[in-house]
Amino acid sequence: TAKQFIVISGAFAVLLIPFAVFAYHNPNAMTQRFSAITYLFNGEFTVLKRAAMCVSNYLVYFSPKFLLFNSDNNLRHSTGFGGEIFFITFLLFAVGIAVVMMKKQMWKDRFILFIMINLLCAPAAAALTSEVGVSNRGILLGLYILLISCYGVKYLIEKAAGRNRIFALVFVFALLFEQTILYVRNYFTVYPEKSREMFFGYDFGNTLAKAYGQSPRKIILSKYSNEFYQPFIFLSVYKNIVPNPKHIPVYLGDAVPEQNTCIMFNYWNERLLDRYSARYNDLSIKGSFVKLRYYY
Predict the structure, then answer these.
(1) In angstroms, rounded to a whole number, what is the distance separating the alpha carbons of residues 295 and 260?
(2) Element (H, E) at 189
(3) pTM, entire model
(4) pLDDT bracket for residue 61 (50, 70, 90)
């Protein structure tokens, strides 16, 4: 009703006040990231080229590859096992879409119309970015597909009768259970080893604890980083987690070897350290992304 609409809109407007104040004092904060990842402001592309990229990117999010087989190559966003949704969810979604399309009276249901509009709009923002098929940018698409798949389940239940209805439900939930088990198994067995290098803080805590164990005069975390790895973040976290009973100073700084000092660094810093002739013990934990040297 109009009254409900006014109440909801009014509450939403009130909640937007802190956002509006922040945006006013930080005009570029909300658009800086988008400006860095979009092709819209790339002067090398014509308007026609940008439009074609938008359509092409949009369609990727509805492709079988993204939805069913491999939603994202970035293992920080996806496990690499399957796509954005399960096969059984997609099959039920297809049934749900068919039902909605065939039964015109269902379009009069505002909730169904709301879901369908959101389904079509879900990948729109992701399509404006240069990277194609990014799982976390298309995650809402999976939500609306799931909701529509419920209409597929409803249709199967209504069409089946007696024992067939029970069989249909058991079949659906058996497939869902199987795919869930396969996903969870992959997540806890295959994925950790396969993805560890994508998480730059892998085993940071154990490496810091090992550095404390050498009782050095100080511990230096090399400040040199790349676009994705920001070492101060990990140091800020693990300094407050890993016990430091001897209160050994640990800080972010230049990786310059000194006597009785531990240096934590990453593999792209190794050549910088190899320029020095200072003697050291390599105490790096096998498989850890963070390396450790004790200079004596």
Answers:
(1) 6
(2) helix 163-189
(3) 0.74
(4) very high
